[in-house]
Amino acid sequence: MAKETEVIKQKLELVEFLRGYLTLLPAGKNFKALCPFHGEKTPSFIVSPDRQMWHCFGCGVGGDIFKFIMLYEHLEFPEALKFLAERAGIQIQSLNPAQQREFGVLYDITDAAKRIYKEALSKNHEAQEYLKSRGLHLDTVEEFELGYAEGGESLTLGLLKEGYDIETIVRAGLAQKNTRGLYRDKFQERIMFPIANQVGKTVAFTGRILPSALERMRAQGMTMDLPKYLNSPDSLIFNKSKVLYGFDKSKQAIHEAKSVLLVEGQMDLLMAWQSGVKNAVAVSGTALTPNHLERLRRFADTVIVSFDNDEAGLKALERALDYFHSFDFHVKVIGLGSHKDPADACLADPEFLKKAIEWAKPAMQYVLDVYFMPTVYKKHDIPAQKRVLRHLLQKVQSLRSAVEQNIWIQEIAKRSGIREHALLEELSSLDVPRTVDGEETDFDSSSRPKEQTQGDLVARRLLALALTREGFLDILKTNSAFLPPAYQEMLAHPDSEAIGFLELEASYEFAGLDEAKLGKEFRDLLGRLESGVLRERKMILQERLKQAQSAHDDTKVAELLREFSELAKKIDILSK
Ligand SMILES: [Zn+2]
Known about the structure:
By secondary structure, the chain is an alpha+beta fold. The chain is built from 26 helices and 16 strands. The protein has four domains: 2-88, DNA Primase, Chain A (Alpha-Beta Complex); 97-231, Alpha-Beta Complex (DNA primase DNAg catalytic core, N-terminal domain), CATH 3.90.980.10; 257-451, Dna Topoisomerase Vi A Subunit, Chain: A, domain 2, CATH 3.40.1360.10; 454-574.
């Protein structure tokens, strides 16, 4: 494999290749561009023709041509290798031929199944009527290539007839052996939603059982194994913790809107799409994972959530909130009124979602509204109130920004009548965020992303750079208060493994740069870190000032104003 990657790198000149994706401007012997991986107005994406490497100083990502295309097109390494080999016009030999064949076969058979399902839908009146009753138009059905699984052995037989062997059909998750040892189709009497990967290739299916089939099977006493929605099992080409339904079609719209509507089911997504909301994806019957969010974060700053309007939906939302916050997303929630889910709302009123998106509330406000309903936050029921407050404070704790925490503490104080400092005390007594209770999730602490905010990324690079020069390190130590706690900790333990690793990275990263450039970079990073921290302080001050003003506390106002102008001066100096 190593040989192929080298050949590809020789054939595809990085700068020329990137011109196909970005507008590159000369910057000394390097080039710069607006980073495609985070929103920015001044270029911090640097390309080095000498080293055939790129790096973004805004968000900290970087690497070679492979890393770029994996991030940009959301490909796994084998797919990226294939993609670039085609571009370079070379044959890949060392990609294990058996594995290469297996990829191809699975793509092909999934595609063949999609074709058979589509054809079956065109012939099945009941399935067509069902889709019509749910409000789907024919062009939506065609665009998303919905189909129908007749059941029995019809798909299996069709695929055998096309030359696929039974082992492959089973491996692709399309057939399974029943208790009597006979092969039967996995999907029986279901509407089939093909699931595509990021580049639009069909990799799996979700099947929604027809209501009449469900009734009949239940009447026959079959209640086991009869979920309303059934997903393909994971395979070489399908990893359900990575794929989001609709993403292949909506990613451009998400990128343009910088926001994404997140719904639970396929029907929700299709109805949203049909009513003109194109920047949407569905999690489709699986728990939200860091992989999903990482993918979305590159395209969007804001997530607008519209989950089912029931207790399970609220639970899913609250669970998701912690995740969103750890990725520093701005989160809003749509209230569905009396509709049970977004699909239902769109069916009743095709304009509903568009309006609802405009009126979406910040997630925390939505959660507070629910928990401060008189039926939940009961007057005179102190244990119940305590439970609610602790629960809400845990949500606040998961917020990354101190400013945001502050805003919501104030709001909780206002609604509960409990003084702010009592709430803050309670907040500080809470345990560090626990892992998510039970439930299928990849969100254990080890997979939780450790560097997401820009502040973290800047701090990491700054520390790495400081490790290359004694002088820098001394300066950083005297300014360590500006570092996020994790980096202060690292700075205080120079013998730790983390520092050792960072040192390695730094020697690679900064090798060959001249002293003047290193010095400038160091000052820039330090300045950015400091101004970020000061800006956050300024926002907190602004909040407090507003409060003091509305309380007509003149002495406090004067004191805060003094503080404020000092801070503003400091920020001003830094920005010069
Ligand atoms: Zn960037």
